Amino acid sequence: MTTPAAVSKLNTDLFIDGQWVPARSGATFDVVNPATEEVLAVVADGAAADATAALDAAVAVQAEWAATAPRERGEILRRAFELITERADEIASIMTAEMGKPLAEAKGEVAYGAEFFRWFSEEAVRISGDQLLAPDGKTRYFVQRQPVGPCVLVTPWNFPLAMGTRKIGPAVAAGCTMVFKPAELTPLTSLALVEILAEAGLPDGVLNVVNTTDPGEVVTAWMTDPRARKVSFTGSTPVGKHLLKQAADNVMRTSMELGGNAPFLVFDDADLDVAIGGAMAAKMRNMGEACVAANRIYVQSGVAEEFSNRLAEKMGALTVGDGATEGVGVGPLIEQKALDKVVQLVDDAVEGGAEVKVGGDRPAGDGFFYNPTVLSNVSSESDLMSTEIFGPVAAVVPFDTEEEAIALANATPFGLAGYLFTTDLNRAFRVSDAMEVGMVGLNTGIVSNPAAPFGGIKQSGLGREGGSEGIDEFLEVKLIAMPQP
Ligand code: NAD
Q: Is the CB of 102 under 6 A from ligand 1?
């Protein structure tokens, strides 16, 4: 393997108060390429003392940063958007090397991730307030919005750029300072992002980054410090619940983008070409390692067999391999543990009576690869239906009636995304309304856009990222009351 030039160039220390510094302990950890299992880079491994130094820096500049002109903050984001766009190939090569997704998808994420900065550069200058008169006419009230204060940002490995820009964009626009802990499996893209933000003019101390192999220690140092005023987390529901409990003791604001278990409903009046295209996008994007990935595919009995066969044909035609290689459509899973989980889920489902239409195994050799797999007639009782698969495995279950489809879709504690394919307009709205999710893909497998509010209900989270809602997560309402003369 050749390490991408963009990886070799990266500064891999901690970034605190505008300086690259090693961990106080001198500790480091290896970042592994999941396609080759070789070490890509060695990164500073922070601990509680480093975390506190990072928060000290964020607290020290909070008041000054909050007082900057919104236009200035917006223009920093705009410059960073342009720099990311100019360096899209470099950033994509880093992302593919550390996370595994094919280069074309990595470039797609770079464009999507950068777009959060462009969107929030425009939102920075649109923070508005309100003004009202008391009903008795004796007091005037001014309602203003102010930055919430120093924020704790914690992100997952599956979208190494976009999960960061989706939080950093609105925090910068709102005037918040930040301590940021990227996922330990994919810290390199975030380091490239920090360099770009510094180059774009983000003042020292506004964004501080601590990578670590002990997220519990680093994040707890922040969550138990009353100077941190908000936590914005994207990751699994169990870790989200743990952070919500920690936030309660400090009465911190929280934004939680947690796990999903997306239902994907195909009715027999659907345009099957559209439904298959939607399933490929909702299942195979990111090798299935997405919180909004179609996890349970319910297809009305009349078209279930045809749907499964056609999906199997499409998925079986994809090339599995190192995402850096031209023409590869499916990269490796993130790590051995993830691969073991997918192997076990598929094996269990097959033992429970599922039929393998394609795949069901892994290719020989190094790397955490799993072949694109379609299973039909999966039992509703199978673990595959209640667990986030996070792999290139499509589980198809037939249903008969609309009521049954809605009941199946909602039979989960999660409520992030759901998908619905039908050409009947009344059914489209009836079922969309009934689905217990934060986002519905109606005849589409892609729901996310920086201009639209992204987020879940039930155990999939609290709050929204992107859209005009995204910046509100980083703002507090302040009331000023003034008696009328
Ligand atoms: P994870 O919860 O294991 O890790 C997420 C982050 O939390 C990482 O940075 C990790 O280091 C950190 N973390 C782990 N333990 C911690 C602790 N005790 N205290 C503080 N921080 C801790 O999740 P993951 O495996 O990185 O990501 C996959 C999960 O993320 C899936 O469940 C997926 O659905 C979810 N996800 C959700 C969204 C969304 O927008 N809703 C987007 C992407 C991923």
A: no
Atom of ligand 1 minimally distant from the CA of 257: 41
Is 291 one of the catalytic residues?
yes
Ligand 1: which residue has its CA nearest to atom 14?
215
Q: How far is the CA of 342 from the centre of ligand 1 (A)?
A: 18
Q: What is the DSSP string of 195-225?
A: HHHHHTTPPTTSEEE---S-HHHHHHHHHT-
Does the C-beta of 239 come closer than 6 Å to ligand 1?
A: yes
Q: 417 is written with which tokens? A: 């995304």
Judge contact between 348 and 383, C-beta under 8 A: yes
pLDDT of residue 1: 58
pTM above threshold 0.85? yes
Residues in the chain with pLDDT values less than 50:
none
Q: Cα dihedral sign for 149, 162, 37, 367?
A: positive
Amino acid at 122: E
Q: How far apart are CA 75 and CA 98, in angstroms?
A: 30
Q: Per the residue annotation, which of 105, 115, 123, 257 is the catalytic one?
A: 257
Report the pLDDT value the prediction gives residue 209, as an integer from 0 to 100: 98
pLDDT at 179: 98
Q: In sequence order, what are the residues at sequence separation of 6 or more whose Cβ sits closer than 8 angstroms to the Cβ of residue 295?
A: 260, 261, 262, 263, 264, 385, 388, 389, 395
| DSSP 8-state secondary structure symbol assigned to residue 142 | E
